[in-house]
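Case study: Lasso peptide biosynthesis PqqD family chaperone.
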Amino acid sequence: MTTGEGGAVLLNGQTGRYFQINATAHLILTALLDGATPDQAAERLATTYPDAADRAQTDTTDLITHLTGIGLLIP
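Here is what the predicted structure looks like once written out:
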């Protein structure tokens, strides 16, 4: 994962495909990689972006589903 100001770029080492994620997705993914549970990652997102706290759980679940579906995250 290469990070930047607006998010990060991920490389699927098996396919060679790159994926760009925004800052919100980067926050969730970093929390998960640091050992947080999905609920803890959502809580971190809600704390960081309080105006969007009502969507934090859904956004976290959607990101996990998407990254799992494209092979970047293994549950």
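For the exam, be able to explain this: The helical segments are 23-33, 38-48, 56-69.
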